[in-house]
Amino acid sequence: MRQTEFDIDGGRFCAYSSIAPRTGNSQRDAELPVVLIHGIGMSHRYFVRLRDELARTRDVHSIDLPGFGRFGRPKEPFGQERMARALADVLDRLNVPRAVLVGHSMGAQWVVELARQRPDLADSVVLMGPVVDDERRTLRDQAAALALDTLGEPPVVNAIVFADYIRCGMPWYLTQLRHMMAYPIEERVAELTAPVLVMRGGKDPVAGLEWCRRLRDHARDGSVAIVPGHRHVVQFAGARAVAFEIDTFVARGREAVGGSAPT
Q1: Average of per-residue pLDDT values in the chain
Q2: Confidence at residue 261, expressed as pLDDT on a 0 to 100 scale
Q3: In this predicted model, what pLDDT tens digit does every residue of 180-197 receive, in sequence order?
Q4: What CATH architecture does domain 2-256 belong to?
Q5: Crossing angle, helix 139-152 and helix 170-182, to 10 degrees?
Q6: What is the pTM of this model?
Q7: Would you call 181 exposed, middle or buried from its count of C-beta atoms within 10 A (0-12, 13-18, 19+)?
């Protein structure tokens, strides 16, 4: 894994890149890279299992955003628009001309905004456990859903989440929380030209099934995938199933472009 740091627009980004081995098979070696964007308070660490699964066949870049992971807080807030512009710069510097953009929780908002601003970078967009449900867009509802999810997540997931929350710190978390609650993801996703997959764990109390279906319906080309038995941090405990859904979604998009109807 290669680690690369960037100072962009007053914030520090860190890309953890796993480069898949080149096999000489032109079709396999041409697989699109995947970009993983974490949610509020988090870091690349809860993507480790998913990154390892995806990196078997494609390049994967998991990016820590300013104020999260091991980096200190920027002096100024990073709203979704500013964060997306900086993320586009990161991908340009990584020489990633086009990718599958995957965001988890609030990360779904950041990849939607990135794909909206720079459609040339987005081959397809995957929104895992996207927030915030437009029928439960209050702090009380979101806190209750998060608490319920915590009770059902594996201990190792909670350990990673709580440790990352501590590293993030409450001031920066609350700053980003205000941006998260205000962002109209359902309106922005309607502007995307890339195919959108909305994914959730079957037991996710944060991103409910009806909300995911509504978000899918806002997209021009949307679909929903459910990973049974898992909760909000589905990409950790259900990494293999999530990787399968992403690979299948991307393959169907290629078939559609090639003229074959997706199954």
Answers
A1: 93
A2: 35
A3: 999 999 999 999 999 999
A4: 3-Layer(aba) Sandwich (3.40)
A5: 120
A6: 0.94
A7: middle
